[in-house]
Amino acid sequence: MNPDEPNPFQFCPRCGAPGGEFLKRKEFHCRVCGHRYFHNVAAAAGILTQDTQGRFLFLVRGMEPGRGLLGLPGGFVDPGEPLDEAIRREVREEIGAEIDTPVFLDGYPNRYAFAKIWYNTLDLYFTAKVLAPQEEWSVDPREVSSLAWKYPAEVRPADLAFPSLQALWSDWTAGRWKKGAQS
Ligand SMILES: [Zn+2]
């Protein structure tokens, strides 16, 4: 898939005419019927969590995109869903555990390819503590092939699944939140 050709439609979804313009990587415009569709930025959320030894939790992704690479617990915000509920639901779905109060770090843009469609996302990252011990987690084997606890020195940026996560990790390891959110 070529990210420079992100038009999600081969045909107008209203009148069926082939082609159509795709403007600013988000706006589909049909020249035949005038239909406009905005393929807007989607919100996603993830958490950075540490154990008492200072290792960070990564999930080895079991699904594309980024299968086999490192991600964080998290996922897309559902329509109408408050952000706090979204992050808690995603963590619950992926590792089967509850978290304490998430502390916001920052949001970074990402491009997420799924089923031959490019989604532009804004990935919102938090720190949070997982409340249950790992023996009590229930990891979703469809989404997560394994858990990987890593010291910062063990994390290679190229192993991180998404540019947004690479940007977060770069800021984190540069000490951007040294005096704040780190729990
Ligand atoms: Zn049309």
Write structural notes for this entry.
This protein has two domains: about 5-40, no CATH class; about 45-175, Nucleoside Triphosphate Pyrophosphohydrolase. With about 180 residues, it is α+β, with helices and mostly antiparallel strands. It has helices spanning about 85-95, 165-175; strands spanning about 20-25, 25-30, 35-40, 40-50, 55-60, 70, 75, 105-115, 115-125, 145-150. The strands form three sheets. The protein has a four-stranded mixed sheet with strand order 7-4-9-8. It has a three-stranded antiparallel sheet with strand order 1-2-3, with no helix packed on it. Strands 6-5-10 form a three-stranded antiparallel sheet, with no helix packed on it. It starts with 20 loop residues before the first strand and ends in a 10-residue tail after the last helix. The longest helix is centred in the middle third of the chain and has 13 residues, at about 85-95. The radius of gyration is 18 Å and the shape is elongated. The structure holds zinc ion (ZN). Zinc ion binds near residues 14, 15 and 33.
